[in-house]
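Allow me, if you will, to draw on your knowledge of protein folds for a short while. I am sending you one protein, given as its amino acid sequence and as whole-number tokens for its backbone shapes. Kindly check, if you would, that the fold set down in the tokens agrees with what the sequence suggests. The record follows directly beneath this note:
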Amino acid sequence: MLFDLVCFLTLLFYALTVSQPLFYWIAFTATSRKLSAPAYIEMRNHIDNQMQKRGPAMYYGTLAACVVLVVLAFMQAGAIPQITSLIALLALITDITLMMKGNVPINAVIQKWTPGSYPADWQDYRDRWLNIFGYRQIALCIGFTSLLAGAVFR
């Protein structure tokens, strides 16, 4: 029963975490490539401000739930939940690492820009940000799919 509850909570937290990359994949990446520099900078900075406020709680919750799920899987569950929960945790760690080493530093640079004052190579920053975020999307989708598989096929 405890494993099922933690599995549910982990899926819930992971779903919140993976929703942002899924939205980017479905519509926002193509849209952001079409924005002018001032529009992109204003939008990127507003999103970054909100993610700085709300993102840590979402990520800490997802990370904590994943760690607890992995521990419980190795204590109480069979091989499938052990493997799938471990894959989900590793995928989340990959996402966090890419975010902290790639997207967050680029966000810090973009936060210094204004819609009226930005470098000529602003598109290079945008493209690097989107490229790193693309790898994060892959990692999180693998992790979430793994969690779903573990919940269904255990």
User: Anything to note?
Assistant: The chain has a mean pLDDT of 93.
